[in-house]
Amino acid sequence: xxxxxxxxxxxxxxxxxxxxxxxxxxxxxxxxxxxxxxxxxxxxxxxxxxxxxxxxxxxxxxxxxxxxxxxxxxxxxxxxxxxxxxxxxxxxxxxxxxxxxxxxxxxxxxxxxxxxxxxxxxxxxxxxxxxxxxxxxxxxxxxxxxxxxxxxxxxxxxxxxxxxxxxxxxxxxxxxxxxxxxxxxxxxxxxxxxxxxxxxxxxxxxxxxxxxxxxxxxxxxxxxxxxxxxxxxxxxxxxxxxxxxxxxxxxxxxxxxxxxxxxxxxxxxxxxxxxxxxxxxxxxxxxxxxxxxxxxxxxxxxxxxxxxxxxxxxxxxxxxxxxxxxxxxxxxxxxxxxxxxxxxxxxxxxxxxxxxxxxxxxxxxxxxxxxxxxxxxxxxxxxxxxxxxxxxxxxxxxxxxxxxxxxxxxxxxxxxxxxxxxxxxxxxxxxxxxxxxxxxxxxxxxxxxxxxxxxxxxxxxxxxxxxxxxxxxxxxxxxxxxxxxxxxxxxxxxxxxxxxxxxxxxxxxxxxxxxxxxxxxxxxxxxxxxxxxxxxxxxxxxxxxxxxxxxxxxxxxxxxxxxxxxxxxxxxxxxxxxxxxxxxxxxxxxxxxxxxxxxxxxxxxxxxxxxxxxxxxxxxxxxxxxxxxxxxxxxxxxxxxxxxxxxxxxxxxxxxxxxxxxxxxxxxxx
Amino acid sequence: xxxxxxxxxxxxxxxxxxxxxxxxxxxxxxxxxxxxxxxxxxxxxxxxxxxxxxxxxxxxxxxxxxxxxxxxxxxxxxxxxxxxxxxxxxxxxxxxxxxxxxxxxxxxxxxxxxxxxxxxxxxxxxxxxxxxxxxxxxxxxxxxxxxxxxxxxxxxxxxxxxxxxxxxxxxxxxxxxxxxxxxxxxxxxxxxxxxxxxxxxxxxxxxxxxxxxxxxxxxxxxxxxxxxxxxxxxxxxxxxxxxxxxxxxxxxxxxxxxxxxxxxxxxxxxxxxxxxxxxxxxxxxxxxxxxxxxxxxxxxxxxxxxxxxxxxxxxxxxxxxxxxxxxxxxxxxxxxxxxxxxxxxxxxxxxxxxxxxxxxxxxxxxxxxxxxxxxxxxxxxxxxxxxxxxxxxxxxxxxxxxxxxxxxxxxxxxxxxxxxxxxxxxxxxxxxxxxxxxxxxxxxxxxxxxxxxxxxxxxxxxxxxxxxxxxxxxxxxxxxxx
Lengths: 670, 482
Description:
The structure holds two protein chains of two kinds.
Chain A: H1 7-26, H2 34-61, E1 73-83, E2 86-94, H3 96-119, H4 126-144, H5 149-167, H6 174-205, H7 214-223, H8 225-237, H9 241-256, H10 265-268, H11 274-283, H12 288-295, H13 297-303, H14 308-326, H15 332-352, H16 365-399, H17 415-429, H18 435-450, H19 452-477, H20 483-488, H21 496-522, H22 546-567, H23 573-581, H24 583-590, H25 595-641, H26 649-669
Antiparallel strand pairs in A: 1-2
Helix pairs in contact in A: 1-2, 1-4, 2-3, 2-4, 3-4, 3-11, 3-16, 3-21, 4-5, 5-6, 6-9, 7-8, 9-12, 11-16, 12-15, 14-15, 14-19, 15-16, 15-18, 15-19, 16-17, 16-18, 16-21, 17-18, 17-19, 17-21, 18-19, 18-21, 18-22, 19-22
Chain B: H1 2-8, H2 15-41, E1 49-57, E2 62-68, H3 70-89, H4 97-116, H5 120-141, H6 146-174, H7 182-187, H8 193-210, H9 219-226, H10 229-254, H11 256-283, H12 287-308, H13 311-342, H14 353-356, H15 358-371, H16 378-391, H17 396-424, H18 441-459, H19 462-477
Antiparallel strand pairs in B: 1-2
Helix pairs in contact in B: 1-4, 2-3, 3-4, 3-10, 3-13, 3-18, 4-5, 4-10, 5-6, 5-10, 6-8, 6-9, 8-10, 8-11, 9-12, 10-11, 10-12, 10-13, 11-12, 11-17, 12-13, 12-16, 12-17, 13-15, 13-16, 13-18, 13-19, 15-17, 15-18, 16-18
């Protein structure tokens, strides 16, 4: 099958970045008008989306291979930088997960491009904004299409930079500048581990390719003897090398995906424009860490299954932590940000619980379930979370504030936003017939397979999710209207460029939800996500565990009921009473358990004060001092010697004679 | 011979001539590079291409012997680019323009001569030719504590060259006092190991001073801080590379046994350089000082990679020289332009420049991102090559050094973003700045050229990597472990 056109999926956004960005940079005189720049970006993205859908259609309708998996295509692969016997390639790799990611990224990105027409209307730097969006889309697509880890790392850094640029879009605001810096440095810190992990991996396996199997070692044999010896050693020892490398890479992924304790950048990243938060910090970039583990999953399963427990623990803790914090935030974007962290943690846990050891076989059905559920949740979450963020954007646009106190009662003014927001809330809460139900339920089933503790823990977190999402929903659309604010300015529904993406995304959410829910209960193999993506590659039919499904649905409905009871009314006596009873708990959660302060302490107090400053002091005082001292010494020596050349003949004569006598005596004695 | 023409060309007096001359040089370097690649492709496997030799001072076997290999070719290309853009960057230099450019040209002559000569003495002579004008250029056209800076820089570098000449004479005599040609000495090297161990530190430290080896780097911040723009560009961009080049070409090539025995000491020093420079840069407040310390860190990485002594890491070292040269030149050019407008380089006083001079600010952001190793720019490929190469040394000591050096990528991000945040973003701090203008055409041209080169090298690294790695092999092949 011919996929050579797929290279254009990468090139088009790059071209549009250059076309929009270059005139802007070289001279402002030549820059495009707002409309043209936006159209260039959106059209190229539209083409990318068409190409992605076409690729997906071609790919998934093709015949499976004999063993039931989809063939993997590498339409492009060129050596970009040779590194001894290793080499750094750039190319395009098509396999089920990368094609699935193509769909997610291009869809959400296109929606955000369209949405931004309305949202960014009239903003200064509109062209710059679209240029960065194109850059980001290109990097993200490059990341998922990467043929090897190094290419992945390269685009990984590029998405980091695009995210930096977009968070700091409003560069005159202190908070935005600070947040962008924080995001970049925290993720960069994590990337350092990723890089070390990559280096270890490459060194011991003799290749940067993802599928590290017998063929790779054969490749090493052709290249150099020492690679073979080392990879043989790494394998024979079965030792700590590959698990170490994988865990290091996971740290990199945890940084990007905002896992505890590297999550601190994501809430602050909300300082960027809201569509950017929807695209980068909810739907695509932040799931890069999940994608990375999924990509390397064969290696994890084969060589480091125990290390997956690290992923489970980190994920489970983060899910709980973020949900707890989300319950107490008042800025709607922060609530959504913490909810994103929590949902990504769900995906992480789902990947981590794929332990093959429990049932003996290498990859039995249960082990597959987690992987499939994780990818599916990634897909559904991208859609409904993007919808939530874009909805939040409409709301912020209408009331000019991020705070929940400025909202309330908006359902009358913004009906479309209200309905789409509600649909997404129901999806994230896990109500049947909405997409979040199918994916989250599978994750929880997989967790129960792993251990009951894990299963109940995640069910608890799911209940918290439903609670805080409906707290948010009622806070925005019901509750007390802020009359004072509305006096000057009545909120109104957003323009059609902004509502269209909302409607589209919520239709996807409902559509996928209905099909997969029915499919799951009736065992329709075609309606199952597992028929597209699964750990072993073979088709895999999802079958709901009725017990788990019933439990989680009941718990979700109970939480929603609780939230309704507390937050729906105009007055909220119970909520106020709760604050009054547990002021400290609320305060801690509101302050995110003081994690930021801890970091602030470490970086400013320790690194700056106790490392950088002393280094500087040593440099200035000791090293520079020593050198200056040498110069001073030379100077002084000169000054001391100078009087000796006094020009006084008698003095010279005295020295001359003394010397002669001394020499003569010396010679005589010898 | 064409190479002779480069050296003789010493008559530039006004801008026009300077532009003509430097474009001519640039064209020639490009031609040379293409010629070199085609020769290599054509199966010419000689170590040095365009080899020529004339007896100069026969009694001491001094020849004017020149030739180029892959390393010198890329270094020449780098120097030409920087001289070319440096000319544009100092377009408006006021007092004594003619004299300034004369010294500037003499300086670049020394640099070119150094990179092409393969005779110990000729090389040393050109080295001195490159150093002396620096004193005048900084002392006269500089700013701030310029006399102190010029004196310090010259004295420290002269101290370094005293060590070098000792080492060179030692090499000459202990190898039988029969030839000064680097190639001949290398191929028939019978300097005893004990002697090598004595001479190696002399030569390595001597060149290391110029390569900002810890703890001999202190000339660099103050020297760069006080030098005029184009001199900073040329100095950080090219002159500091002389150090790395000399360490590789002379210390390691001619004293291979000692290089193998003593590398560990210097490896520790360079690892310190890398991290130390980066941490120092975090607390500086003068733009040029930040950059100078960042240069200490990056040049430390060059020496670090050379001492790792694998083919990949040495290729990475040369790539890093190339990339650091272009990036710092870009940085210093931009700093010069900003300083020329605001008359301050203190980051606490600057702020909000993005609004006032968008072109320069975007240029600065690009330079910063290139400096912290963003893919697509040259810094990324150089660093990745170095780290990959270093990782081939599997023992614990080398691994530790490598991991410590890798931490510098985070610290680099910290100081770059700190600076960018301070000077470009947020509110305009000084109301007078509102009236300042953005870059003029000559400045735009210089900046665009450099960005184009940095991005070009970063996007299509394969040719440079090939040219360099072929040239690295003969040097490494004489070092015993390999």
